[in-house]
Amino acid sequence: MSFAQRLKSIYDALGEQLTLCSPDFMSxxxxxxxxxxxxxxFVWQARGVVMLLAAQKNLEVLEPKPNQIKMAVCxxxxxxxxxxxxxxxxxxxxxxxxxxxxxxxxxxxALTGLALYSHERxxxxxxxx
Length: 129
Description:
The protein has 2 domains: 1-63, 2-Layer Sandwich (Nucleotidyltransferase, domain 5); 65-129, Nucleotidyltransferase, domain 5 (2-Layer Sandwich), CATH 3.30.420. It has 5 helices and 2 strands; from the N terminus they run αβαβααα. The protein has helices at 3-21, 37-56, 66-74, 81-92, 101-124, and strands spanning 25-27, 60-62. α1 packs parallel to α2 (37-56) and α3 packs across α5. 16% of the residues are buried.
């Protein structure tokens, strides 16, 4: 499949899920690439498709940084990949670490988004006595 077709596949599949689930927000990791510019280019383009869908659905987008994700999931911004995977497993009560690695990363981003959204929502809405 060509890269353009893969982007369309992401657009179609994610668009379908957003319609089915009607989320209040999206959590998309803020990315940083130091060396592999080619990989970064593909990821940024896919990320653009995701951000376009969020805008089309009028969804708030939370963009946690990698160290925020590690802090939210593990309580330590310098946690390694295995620590994050194990905490995702434990937090969600899964029998095994999510596979592939990207699945565990996506779940960690989602968990962080939930925490950030909840926190921001409490700050925006007046407290009820």
